[in-house]
Amino acid sequence: MTQQAGPRTPLWDPTRNPPAMSRAPLARPAPPPPPDLFPDFDEEPPPARRRRRALTVLAYLLLAAAVAFLGRYLRPDGADRIVIPVIVARPSASAAPASATAAPATTVRPAVGTSGAFAYVTGYGQVLGTAGPIRRFHVAVEKPSAFLVPASFAAVADRTLGDRRSWIAARRFRLQRVPPGARAEFTIYLASARTSERMCREGGLETAAYTSCRLPGKVIINDDRWEGSVRGYGAPLSTYRAYAINHEVGHQLGHGHERCPGKGRRAPVMMQQTLGLKGCIANAWPYP
Length: 288
Description:
Blueprint lengths: L45 H28 L24 H4 L16 E3 L13 E9 L6 H13 L12 E4 L8 E6 L1 H10 L10 E3 L2 E5 H6 L8 H16 L36
Parallel strand pairs: 2-3, 2-4, 4-6
Antiparallel strand pairs: 1-2, 5-6
């Protein structure tokens, strides 16, 4: 008896019967590119760059102006600087007295302009003194000037003339600053050196653009002296300013010049201290 053979296992044909485990490779997305940590910098357009530079320079200039302003008006009186004069050549000395031209000019930073026109301080000041009739005055500052200069000059004039050592100590009159619309006996001017020279010359006085002067109804303070005092004065600028006002107002009140009474003694306020103390000690007051 012949044994029947079992079913034959077919041979594997890779073209007809691929293996069951065969898989196509998975499609994976490409990874994103790494971030650019240093992107290209777009250069600022030239007009914008110039505008930015101009604004920077303007900011520095404003800062410098603010520092200069604070240095001028907010320093204490004790720290006022007296500018050391330097001798300069003058075009002509024939028209001025020898005593005036002998005094050297000073290099100072002016507080007022040179326009020849004046701005008058508004408002009323306090009545200064306790007895006698009121003698009224105006205060004017040459244009253009810094914002606080007129008010500051008027305040120094009020404080000086209202001091118990000033002219009101005689108790013969009182003083008061009044606005330009009110009648006044005289005006206290703060004028540039050249304008003060011209104003004084019109009244017959030669100052060589160095000293202050007084004409009828006009007390003219030279701004160079107001800002810089004089060489060898030996006292703070605040003392010289009080002297300048008291001296020129003293002329308006009828007082003449006086001389140094002796070496080491106090100079009379009506002595021409701007031209030298002649051995005396600086003094700003008629009744010290």
